[in-house]
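Board notes (copied after class):
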Amino acid sequence: MNRHILYQDLFGGHDPELLAKWQKATVGIAGAGGLGSNVALALTRAGVGKLIIADFDVVATTNLNRQQYFLEQVGRLKVEALKETLGRSNPFVEVITCPERITPFNLAQFYGSADILIEAFDLAEEKQMLIETWQALYPDRYIIAASGLAGVGKNELIHTERFGRLFIIGDGVSELTEGISPISARVAVVANMQANLCLELLARLEVL
């Protein structure tokens, strides 16, 4: 298909002013699991121009019940498999992959050009490290985190809290304990709320 026609088919229904801002934007996503893969797909389909995704893990069959991967991708690096999937949805997106663990020492190297960072880690200590390092390096830039998404139902408990340039989305309570696992629907709800807030914030920003 002609690329101009494809572009119009994909994004012709968007508000042109919003689309122009989203296409100029660079969004960092820390983690490519349940949250990160769903956030990445939502932003790609909205028309965000550039994503930077870091994750050192590989796709496992246990990921397929809630993450945006497929059986034929099992064993591959998540960031590379996700880049392939995103390109199948929107060939105009630029995806920078970083198949490494994020630390306080390489965060700026990976995400220094990002307008907004989305936290999509599993472990509380990694979440804290990411938030604290980002805020120390870039106090004027937004970070959107998640906390409390295990289980099913209880939609009314999922909400957004704001602490300056930090936003936290989830119920803030549920933890991954025995018998309570991350279920695709609730993970996707939080991920899409992260993506939706990101798009709203980008609409207000003069991107880098």
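Comment from the instructor: The mean pLDDT is 92. Residues 119 and 145 are 5 Å apart (CA to CA).
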